Amino acid sequence: xxxGINTLLFLFMVTxxxxxxxxxxxxxxxxxxxxxxxxxxxxxxxxxxxxxNYDEVVAKKNSVLEAVTTRSMPPYPADTKFRxxxxxxxxxxxxxxxxxxxxxxxxxxxxxxxxxxxxxxxxGPIIKxxxxxxxxxxxxxxxxxxxxxxxxxxxxxGSPTKDEFISAIEVIPGNxxxxxxxxxxxDTSSIPLQLDAQTSEPGYPGFGxxxxxxxxxxxxxxxxxxxxFFPKGFxxxxxxxARIILQVHYPAGTEGQMDFTSVRFxxxxxVSPREVFIDPLLNHQNIVNxxxxxxxxxxxxxxxxxxxxxxxxxFAVMPxxxxxxxxxxxxxxxxxxxxxxxxNIPHWDFHWQMAYTFKTLQKVPKGSILxxxxxxxxxxxxxxxxxxxxxxxxxxxxxxxxxxxxxFYYCQYQSGDELITTEVQDDSPVDMPLTDITFMQIQDGVIxxxxxxxxxxSLRIYDVLGGIVHDQQSNHxxxxxxxTIPISISGAYFMHAIDADGKQYTGGFSIMR
Length: 513
What we know:
mainly beta, Jelly Rolls, nine-stranded mixed β-sheet, disordered N terminus
């Protein structure tokens, strides 16, 4: 594969700046690949080739080098230097540097006997005993090689007999090799059924939406994604009589391949669940510089502002545009005029839309302002422009239309919400026990008190933006009942620790100076 000039320059700079690391497959590269690439790059995955062992990675090392140095892979459009998110899938600068040096040094294997084992992936659902399950009919993709991707909507059988609150949602691709991403909606109207009846094949076309103004977004799936578990006590309302509609994205070249994607829900067992909402709080109504029109041959920037009417708690954010979207950046302007970063996507990719979950829940005070800056590129230089030559673009659900929406997962605020983590959930299917810990503020930081003597293997403390403010790793088995952590800045923090036996400890605390 011929490498671009940017990649060669990047390789040269990293080679000059890196000294003595000498990464090998066994010591570092395997973990980088397994943690960030193999969930898609495996047999039966959506990616075009497997990266599950040393030989496979060496065979594709130049392709991988090009992808990681241009940051086109792993596909995670959000800028994680602007803000961090739960379960984010992106490479750090040090990861990229290590891979470049490894390739530059001839891709040494190291001691293969000590290399980590390849990850194993469940062949079945993670939610084993769901309260609700529904499956789309068998469908053969119509996305021809060299043609357009296909976006198709499917109305699933089954509805709740009363309002329920979803505590966990899992999308199970029927054919992971062709399912690129899925949006999950609920709708109590008959419109999706009417649209479905107009086609002879299962489902109906749906590029920008599902064709119903009453449809509500309730879930998102992207390759490598896990089920979405709300923190304990929270739930998303599943309306009595609602049907589930899946909008499934099939990439070009998958024509004739079959799919039968399904969904699974768990319901909250809380007596009075705290209701979570998913709404496009930033939408076409709060665009400041209307009208929403992008002239042919031009780039145009729009701004949205929304004043928050209640004290709210935000879980996640999901921007939505179509093909001429170029970038989006959202901040939260607090009542005291401080600004909180929400999300920055400098290079929008319609085909990689996802919800970004905050590492700890974000308090959104009454009177604060959500503000977006969104750029559209309606020029012939935009390779994603669906019109050639470019045409004026307005709002709509079609391929040649545009949208300017940002969905937020949110609820009414309660004291302490900002200390709740989304990194590790009590509902998590992973068999790792969680133990609470306590904290005591002192002059120079905080004392972390464990329930007994433990050997701390890993301890991380996050701020409210998900940034790591303290990272402590140890291979020793020294026992501690408490640790002193230096923290000098006021704020809310969350701690996650793992002991030498794999037991996890979590808790939140505040520092007041």
